[in-house]
Amino acid sequence: MALHQAAVPDRPTLEEVRLPTLAEVSLPTLPEVSTLTATTDPTEVETSHGRALVHVHPVETPRGLLVLGHGAGGGVDAPDLVAVTETANDVGFTVALVLQPYRALGRRAPPRAAALDAAWTDVVGALREDVTGLPLVVGGRSAGARVACRTAAATGTVGALCLAFPVRPPGRPDAPSRLPELDGARVPVLVVQGKRDPYGIPPEGRQRTVVMVDGDHSLRTGLPAVRTAVRTWLSRLLAGDPSASPSPDRPETRA
To answer: pLDDT digits over 38-69, tens only?
Structure first.
């Protein structure tokens, strides 16, 4: 799938993060080669549902590739996505921030889940063509996290990083829960959730760690804790050692 350029107009006291076992995860053993380079303008990726825009933030010697999606009506400049991008770069991940085709066209209302999933899978596939031998981690905030979980098997990811996962629409207790999407990822999952998120807080699972930070669905007021949780989880994921000693500053986890 061709990629080409397009011109387009604090750290609080924290608690221990418990990670699930990675024994069932097989990381690639090919030589680590990445041809992804930083771009002033985003890169266009043709998908089955239009052109997505990808903002690549590479590191000199990548240890992994992290692909992140945005919220339903938002963009890749959300504060939590920016914070996670910087943190993942520090850990050694090249990061690709994906703007779905409907948002690239300026639309705020997303299409059906099937269209979102198909476009996302196309983009991740195209990115992987430019990266050899690096473990892939997918994720995003809110709706982007849902897409990443639903397509985890199709993309071949070794983990899913979910920011502000929307369990159920606010004020709609009768609405179907989105927890089956988290359960269906079947890879280690990190959920970072604001303590006052009106969309609810998912429970921990066999392969799911839930870290609660200060703030609501935006996670704006909990960014230092978001950074710490992501740094710890990504580092352990790369090491394949969930029993490694936690850092002195540990995010609060939900039992």
So the answer is: 445 899 999 999 999 999 999 999 999 999 99
The answer to whether 143 and 43 have CB atoms below 8 angstroms apart is no
Euclidean distance between the first and the last CA atom of the chain, given in angstroms as a whole number? 43
Tell the CATH topology of 12-25+33-167+177-253: Rossmann fold (3.40.50)
Residue 175 in this model has a pLDDT that exceeds 60: yes
Nearest partner of 157 among 248, 22, 33, judged by Cα? 22
* Coil/strand/helix, residue 159: strand
Question: Roughly what angle, to the nearest 10 degrees, separates helices 113-129 and 143-150?
Answer: 70
Q: Where are the domains of the chain?
A: 12-25+33-167+177-253
- Helical residues (DSSP H) of 74-203, grouped into ranges: 79-91, 101-104, 113-129, 143-150, 152-155, 179-183
CA distances from 70 to 53, 63, 137, 176, 227 (A): 12, 23, 15, 22, 17
Cα separation values, 48 from 6, 16, 96, 123, 195, Å:
18, 42, 19, 10, 37
